[in-house]
Amino acid sequence: MTRLVELEANGPRKLEPSDIDDEKGDVAVCQCGLSASFPFCDGSHRRTGDEEEATTYVYDDDGERSVVERVVTREDADGSDE
What we know:
Blueprint: E1 2-3, E2 56-59, E3 65-68, H1 74-78
Parallel strand pairs: 1-2
Antiparallel strand pairs: 2-3
């Protein structure tokens, strides 16, 4: 399975010592792209447990999942590599 993830940041997030929660301990960084507290994991990945391997999904702002039938890249759209 794959997921379309749209990010607004244009650089990495460096974790600082202040990012560690004194009560929870370690910080989990989101890898699914669905977290409301991105870049930190909030458990939203649990919604992806039944995704099928050969399918691409997109989630809307309400967390509703849809299957993506076709992904068009810039190269596909205009023949260039950019």
